[in-house]
Amino acid sequence: MSDVKKFMYLNRRAPYGTIYAWESLEVVLIGAAFDQEVSLMFVDDGVFQIVKGSDTSELDMKNFTPTYRTLGDYGVRHMYVDKKSLEDRGLTQDDLIEVAWEDWETEEEVDNIVEVVDSEQIAKLLEESDVVFSF
Amino acid sequence: MKLAVQVNEGPYQHEASDSAYHFTKAALEKGHEVFRVFFYHDGVLNGTRLTTPPQDDRNIVERWVELAEKYDLDLVLCVAAAQRRGIVDEGEAERNGKDATNIAPKFRISGLGQLIEAAIQCDRLVVFGD
Amino acid sequence: MADLYTVNKSPFEKNSLEDAIRFSSEGASILLIEDGVYGAMAGTAVSDLVANASGRKFYALRADVKARGISEDRLIDGVELVDYAGFVDLVVECDKVQAWL
Questions:
Q1: Tens digit of pLDDT for each residue in C39-49?
Q2: Domains present along chain C, CATH in parentheses
Q3: B2-128 CATH
Q4: Which of B75, B103, C4, C10 could form a disulfide with C94 if both were Cys (CB 3.0 to 4.6 A apart)?
Q5: Taking each helix axis from N to C terminus, what angle separates B16-29 and C84-93, rounded to the nearest 10 degrees?
Q6: Judging by beta carbons within 10 Å of its beta carbon (0-12, 13-18, 19+), is residue A85 exposed, middle or buried?
């Protein structure tokens, strides 16, 4: 039985213009079965992945943005967002989706695991991770 | 040390596959274990046997195959990414009704779980991409 | 120990080098590979990024530097050239690798 590792999924690209956002989400979903300690980090254009109001109907592309809202059910405990990346793009936390989380065993609930953090906090969070996935 | 390598881009379009190859080769020559090389996104395109690169330049696919043969390297193409991009082995051809296969030898198609497993079991994950 | 940050894109194309510096702490190593080696050139509009990043140790992959015709005397002071064997050593010596693509 291996030790539990702290996984950090680093997301830096906008959704839909390239496939990286969606295919990295697929890793998170499959990864849920492996019971590691999972966090997602959104930096640069990655912050656009969790902006509200996405409608891909005219693009004829599958809209995967709703999938982020379910990540609490896929073992994701934290979704960190870089403050500077938000500000540079004229966004605030109000523009972002909310993701609920519940621990099925302890029944501990968190209304929203999306958390805006600064550079120093991000450097620390990355350092504390055991594995960083990049896409 | 036990290493895992991830390749996110296809051959020639980006330098990622070259860098990953040279790194993997150097690691193996130093006696480290490369547990798995996992190909994701366009990286699965490294697993087609149908490339015909110009004679005066490196043959990226063949190079991976030769390295795999020499060191018994596990080269894994993500199944979902491979399906999207048309890299097909016998099993996939049968399951999805395709009339041909194109996978290169020594590569195998498998699930994303193989990447997660490598990340859990290895000491280091090194990612090459764009 | 600390992490190894790899940067493979030119600082004139993407902000990956800037990010690697911004999100690293003292003691981190930053390895420039592929087009990332352009970040090691002195006298450019972005050389100060590297020159002012105190506490970080910078490396560049020799094979990529040579391929791009960058002569060693044009590199920022303190950037150490490594080959692929050296790249492997950096990976082994660090705590883990972060790829800033």
A1: 999 999 999 99
A2: 4-100 (3.40.1260.10)
A3: 3.40.1260.10
A4: C4
A5: 80
A6: buried
Domain that holds residue A72: 6-134
- Average pLDDT estimate for A20-33: 97
Between C84, C96, C99, which is nearest B22 by CB? Answer: C84
**How many other C-beta atoms lie within 10 A of the C-beta of residue A132?**
23
Using 50, 70 and 90 to split pLDDT, how confident is the model at A2? low
ipTM of the complex: 0.97
Asked whether residue A1 is assigned to any structural domain, the reply reads no
Cα dihedral sign, B79-B81-B84-B86: negative
Mapped onto helix, strand or coil, the DSSP state of residue C32 is strand
**Mean pLDDT value across chain B:** 98
**The pLDDT of residue A1 is above 50:** no
- In a 13 Å sphere around the CA of A124, the CA atoms on its Cβ side amount to 5
Q: What is the reported pLDDT for A105?
A: 84
> What are the chain A neighbours of C20 within 8 Å (beta carbons)?
none
| Tokens matching residue C78 | 């303190």
Q: pLDDT of C18-40, one tens digit each?
A: 999 999 999 999 999 999 999 99
Residues of B in contact with A132 (CB under 8 A): 125
> How many domains does one find in chain A?
1
Residue C23 and residue A123: Cβ atoms within 8 Å?
yes
CB A74 within 8 A of CB A61: no
State both tokens at B85: 């991009």
The catalytically annotated residue of B34, B44, B78, B122 is B78
Lowest-confidence region among A103-112, B35-44, B98-107: A103-112
**For residue C41, what is the DSSP state?**
B
